[in-house]
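Fig. S4 source data, part A: sequence.
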Amino acid sequence: MEAGVRAALGRAGAVADVDAPVARAKGRTAAYTAANANRVRVLPVLVLECGADPDAPEARAGWTPLLRASHRGMLAAARFLVEEGGAAASSRDAVGGD
């Protein structure tokens, strides 16, 4: 799976803009989408290899990948984001919620 993610990002030229919110995905970044689905094998590719910002908020409510993973109970994704990905454990959404 990781190799497929690397190949897709490279083909799309997305590595340079890995934090860009995707209109089709309702303004969510790739890291947000991976955290939301608990894709713990994809998150290191995005964050550590491609340089995705683990604190980049999605466009609608300002939720970060960590907030979304925590809210959905995706503990493995949340753990990676904090322990290895450098996400701020004090993340807040656009209205100040955590």
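Fig. S4 source data, part B ends here. The longest helix spans residues 2-12.
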